[in-house]
Predict the structure.
Amino acid sequence: MNEILKKVMKTIDGQALDVVRDIVNKITRLRLCDPNGNSYTEIVSIGEYAKQIAQKLYTAQVEYQRQYCFTDNKWGNGHKWQRNLMASLITGMSLDYIWINVVTMKEGVEKHIIDGGQRSRTIHAFFTNCIKLPKKTLVKFRGDILDLSGLNWSEICQRQVEFARHWEITYNLEFKVFEDYTNEQCSEIFNKLNDVNSMSKPEYRNSIWSDLATFVRDLSDYENANGNTLEMFTKNQLEDTTTGSMRGILHGVKFKKRSFDDFISKICYLTANPLKATSNKVLQEWYYTERDGKSTFTKKSKSSMKKNLKWINTLIMSESSSTSRKDLLSDTDLQVLLHIKSVLENSYELKITNGLEFINFWRRVKLTLSDDGKKSDNNRRFEFKDYNDQVIGWSICFSSMSSGRDEEIKEWIGEVSDLFIGEYNIYSEDIENNLPVGFKLLDKSRSIKKSVKEQSLVNQGFKCEYHEWCGNTVTMSSPGDHSETSHTDGGSSSDVDNCDMTCEDCNSEKGSMEKKYFSKVIEMKIKDRDAK
């Protein structure tokens, strides 16, 4: 054994460090790999690894990985966790294995990071001057104590040239390398490696491989890697926080370790399971069901989820930029509004006419419910009860949307939905003297069928029925109007001859007026206009 070691040492004597590493890596790959030959250990200098990451030879954006939640700004300080990690490395402490899957593709080889993505991207951020070392970062080098406190990589290279060069070529990172493992196999490895780590609940759910997890991830990925992210979660709709994380500019949805996955998964679950609690246990079981092939994630349900998420996104994007942070809609606000939407749509077509007015209406409703909850039981207008039949305030109901029982949530939302209907009716009776509500409730039995609207659009050349006056065009989202016989008088909602497509302005002005009378009003307006 000693003779073999002597021969090896003689071979590497005087060789450059990168040559020595290559020899060691060949030995471990050829003689110390697993019996199947598709996993082995490898070492790479930290400087070389940083170059390879910059060249995009590795990707940490694999689907089961944790989301990188740090904001890397050139010449910035970096997050505390990042600063402490780099201080550990630069003072010589060893780093846990980085786990890699080498995948053979038609275009060549890709290296996917199974575990170690946060550390890898932090190393890249340090070498691109996005991180400064923390206070009391002291390094012993060739008999001297170097104070690297508060320095970024460029500053270290300028002030401590010999140390910088020595460290980047002598500090070794160790890799566990696999070849052509499937995503499911890598996901399983990731789960096992992180069983003892503080993986957040959304992170754990994300690592449960399924089409559902991929769908949720794409919609909430603030980096918008696949171009599917909701606008409210894209980078231009986020701002940096003082803690090095991010938050929404127009909303208060929490940015967690898996970005906005938690919120998206709850909305998707509520779409498939209306008026249910969204605890982590429930969501996790749902993810496992999808992974095990007992899928409820069909093409139809996926379309419904996208529709609800689009509804929420449109609502958020109508928020005022001057709204204070404490008043922005939170995760729970949006869950409650989706609950209410599902209840109202059992009997009505809920149409948002002005997003900001609707948001402000909800704020007024919340204030009403909150103030009512502060009154004594005998003086309360609203009687919310828990599972034990105890009267509780709205604030408790609101905070229990994820943890409450399904029966409770159904009762609570039913009462708030009744309040929506009542307030809408009050507003409708005296529009001029009431604050706007930003929505309409249309009796479903009055709604004109899609096929009828489509044919009417073609018949009218996509112009408003009163185009000569208003000059407006119409689309499928424009109001349909019972033209000859009103719905109240038994007019059909499925007869093309009884449907006119109108613009919002004309529809609002016409109201419940019969077409023959409203047509005369329009004729008079046109005459007055032409006479001027």
